Amino acid sequence: MRLRGVAVRTPLLAFPGASAASGPPELLIKPESLQPTGAFKLRGAYNAIAMLLADPADPAARPSGVVAHSSGNHGFAVAYAAARLGIAAAIVVPDNAPEVKTDLIRSVGAEIVTVAPTLAARTEGSRRIARMRGYAEIPPFDDRRVIAGQGTIGLEIAEDFADARTGSPTAVLVPVGGGGLVSGISVAIKALLPGTRVIGVEPELAADARESLRAGQRVAWSPADTARTKADALRAEQVGELTFPHIKELVDDIVTVSEAEMLAAVRRLARQGRLVAEPGGAVAVAAALFRDPAELGLVAGGATAPLVAVLSGGNIDPTQLADILRD
After folding, report:
1. Is residue 222 flagged as an active site residue?
2. Cβ atoms of residues 204 and 258 within 8 Å
3. Which is more confident, 216 or 64?
4. Which of 36, 115, 241, 243 has the most crowded CB, counting CB atoms within 10 A?
């Protein structure tokens, strides 16, 4: 209810020509790139800020603004949500954040604060602004309100299958950065579609979540390592303290895709699906297209239910998209 009229209820779109390549008979895309901010992050950001402002009991407790640290998509979502809700916003971004994303943040009136491209620098910058100005922090993934907002994607997937009376998807593939998206979706899917697998997907050059799941504890990768991937939205160096327990308990597996597979998925989404995806937004689709069914925990030739892949964002620089499409 809180997101009605703010976030788009995105459809499940059949992806033409995917069946022969991916094994399962049908691949359905959940295109969160169609959100007003171009990515799923709007759901969690708006939910968090709206809940923050919802308590009328103590108007004096209302913060003077909100602050977030982000490589781009979460920052734009917080800036957009803050503008809609009439509150100031400051966004802390790494100095290597894509210009297309920082331009979007500025376009809705938020202040940008640039720091070094490390999680520690972004976190400290956000905390400093919160202390000095009395702003409320809106974390990019490690926040229950944010996780709950992202979980509405899982609710919509379950509702669509219930409305169509077509059973359950074989699996839902979800991009993983800090873990907020896969945490929220896995809670909803495991509650409403318990027979459906939830599989996280990340670039092999930023595979800290897969390593963490296998180790049974949070593992951090260095900024130098994660900076190698073109998936700037998935360069989180470590999954969150709140999100990792969700991943351990509810996510069936985490797989990786190569840079070449990720960019091929961007091309195929544009050419075959008429959908714009940024590299990080396309990783789940890449796994559906290029991973063998056995790698996804599926029985080759035995899956009859569709596979769902979340296209998490489409905020890509037009020049970068043109370069990818030329290859």
Report:
1. no
2. yes
3. 216
4. 243
Tell me 42's DSSP state. Answer: H
Phi-psi region of 86 (alpha: psi -120 to 50; beta: other; left: phi over 0): left
End-to-end CA distance of the chain: 43
Q: Is residue 10 classed as helix, strand or coil in its secondary structure? A: coil
pLDDT grade, residue 58 (50/70/90)? low
Quote the mean pLDDT of the chain.
92
Contact 201, 252 (CB under 8 A): no
Which one of the listed residues 22, 168, 212, 312 is annotated catalytic?
Answer: 312
Cα–Cα distance between 226 and 283 in angstroms, integer? 15
Task: Please check the confidence at residue 219 and state whether its pLDDT lies above 50.
Answer: yes
User: Percentage of the chain surpassing pLDDT 90?
Assistant: 79
Q: What is the C-alpha to C-alpha distance for residues 203 and 300, in angstroms, rounded to an integer?
A: 24
Q: Which two tokens stand for residue 37?
A: 């901010």
Q: Which helix (H) or strand (E) holds 30?
A: strand 27-31
Q: Which of 30, 41, 190, 230 is catalytic?
A: 41
Residue 20's pLDDT is 44
Residue 217 has pLDDT above 90, yes or no: yes
Tokens coding 103: 């331009």
What CA–CA distance (Å, rounded) separates 289 from 321?
19
Helix boundaries (H) for 197-292: 208-215, 223-226, 243-250, 259-272, 283-290
- Kindly give the pairing relationship between strand 27-31 and strand 13-14: antiparallel
What gap in Å lies between CA 200 and CA 196, rounded to an integer? 13
Based on the residue annotation, tell me whether 41 is a catalytic residue of this protein: yes
